[in-house]
Write a structure and sequence with these properties.
The structure holds 2 protein chains of 2 kinds. Helix content of chain A is 74%, strand content 5%. Chain A is mainly α. Chain A folds into 2 domains: 6-90, STAS domain (Transcription Regulator spoIIAA, 2-Layer Sandwich); 103-361, no CATH class. Chain B has a domain at 48-70 and 92-261: P-loop containing nucleotide triphosphate hydrolases (Rossmann fold, 3-Layer(aba) Sandwich). Helix content of chain B is 37%, strand content 23%. Chain B has helices at residues 7-16, 62-69, 92-100, 117-128, 133-146, 162-173, 192-209, 220-226, 244-248, 253-259; strands spanning 22-33, 36-47, 51-55, 77-82, 85-86, 102-105, 180-184, 212-217, 229-234, 237-242. In chain B, strand 7, helix 7 (192-209) and strand 8 form a beta-alpha-beta unit. The chains are: A mainly alpha, B alpha/beta. Chain A binds chain B through residues 15, 18-19, 22, 44-49, 51-53, 55-56, 59, 74-76, 79-80, 82-85, 88-89, 92, 94-96, 325-330, and chain B through 1-4, 113-114, 125, 129, 131-132, 134-139, 141-143, 145-146, 150, 153-154, 156-158, 177, 204-205, 207-209.
Chain lengths: 362, 279
Amino acid sequence: MPDVPVIRLDATLDRATVGGTVALIHEAIAGSPGSMVVDLGRVERFDSAGLGGIVEGLRGAREAGVDVRLRGLSQPMLDFFSLVSVERLTAQPAAREPVDLVRRVGGAVMPLLDAFAAIGSTGLRTLLAITVGPMRGRPIRIDRTTLELDHAANGALPIVALIAFLLGLVLAMQAWVQLRVWGAEIYVADMVGVSVLTEIGPLMTAIVLAARSGSSNAAQLGAMVVGEEVDALRQMGVDPLRFLVVPKVIALGLAVLGLGIVFDVVAICGGALFAWGVAGIEPAAFREQLQTALRMSDFLVASAKCVTFGLCVGVVGCALGLRVEGGSEGVGRATTNAVVLGIFLVIVVDTLFVTAQRMVLA
Amino acid sequence: MRPRIPQAALDALAARRRDTDDVLRALAITTVLGDREVLCGIDLAVRRGEVFVIMGPSGCGKTTILRHLAGLQAPTAGTISVDGRDVYALHADELEALRLRTGLAFQGGALLGSLSVEENVALPLRENTDLPDAVIRQVARMKLDMVGLLHAKDLLPARLSGGMRKRAAIARAIALDPEIVYLDEPSAGLDPITAAGIDNLILKLNDVFGITMVVVTHDLPSAFGIADRIAVFFDGKVAAVGTRDEILGTADPRIRDFVDRRLREADGAGADVARYFAI
């Protein structure tokens, strides 16, 4: 074959030189010579990166329809190639096929719909287990519930109280700045009391617990799924929902209720402290004003909100944790989604609450 | 990989450094984990280019010594040296450079769950070389073809079977053409055919690339099939080191029992309930 172009490679064919070699071969292929020869006879040192470059060249040639032959392979090279199939390697496409738009959109939306479906179904089954289950001889696990309650509520108490106190101060300050203009400083009590009790208390508590407990529930259950612990429970005849989810969900419902009340009290105290210290409103006057502003029904609605929010946060974390797939990355994703979807769901439910309340009052 | 050196040159080299041809040395290694002495006074020497098997029952400290040798965890006392240099006295950069000359296939694979099999094998190349992307991919595919996993290259590790994960881990361990490869239980939990395939792969890699292999296993057929030399561990001590025949010919009753798969008399358990019979 005297007329066939020949590429002679230098003595070293390794990591450092392979880039140039591949470029050389591709360049020769681009001229579409029909056939060509790569001469490896002078190569003394090589590594797998170097031979990877040769295979890459052969793959490019195959794609371009150029017949490339190798010449002068040493015994060590032949030994190396005895471990692989060049035929198989050169038959592979260079890169993965790009994903089309429909698949991409579907790939983004479908998991979200799946997640909502899972949250809905877990929520329903949990409610059934809490309400109907005990009547059917499947009592709620009190021991595990108290344990979970301790984890969720005790641990969050300091941070909830701190946030409540500071928010109470800030709310009172903002209200006072506005009301002072009209000489209506006493209404600081109304502002703080109503906003904290009806909205900020339940919302903030639920958000703190979504970040703190919802995420940890998702991570814990997710890791258990990855470690096949959930399957083991199922296999032993222990319903994971009753054993793991129900205690966590009840605990979160109670934790948000308890911490919500703490939040309300501490925030109102913070507001009263500001009113007393800065705005010059006596605590007794503040209390009296508060009593005219707040009704028992407000407190009951707020409590119902707290419990509902807590159940939502609990269900979201557990549902997402239980459907983890794909190891540590899946656990991370579930944890993130537990916080994001947990807070989202809480705010959606809050909107529904307020709408329903207005409709009833109207 | 390193080029094949003519046998005469190898012999000359071997003669010149007869004493220093141990690529890996462990000297008086003692390790305490919690309040348990896992290893007590281990001495080992691994020769360049051999398949060295560390064998022993579960909990005898095999994996711990492997972690020490691979530079992942310093022993409580004693030194590990590679090419005569104390691994745990090295500067961080030097340790990094040393690690690039070694590969470790973990027991469960330790593949990154978010990357495809091909990307897992390509990762060390991507991070440590500036090769063109096409070449990196080709090298990763060659290594996967060596372990028979080319067809699975686009799968995520979660979709692989246990044997496939171990093979993918081996492919990743040899991605950078290492001189020393550590394998932790490469055939544990696999069916005999797959295990034999992995043994065969270990021998081929050792033969073709001259890689020094340190293999931890409790799989007897595998150990005797691949080892140039075997170290048998018992209770954190080296009970014996030698070739397959030397180990098989040993007089140590513990090794005999282990090799013959004979049960040791379990203490206490048994028929002593008779003591509580009423008559």
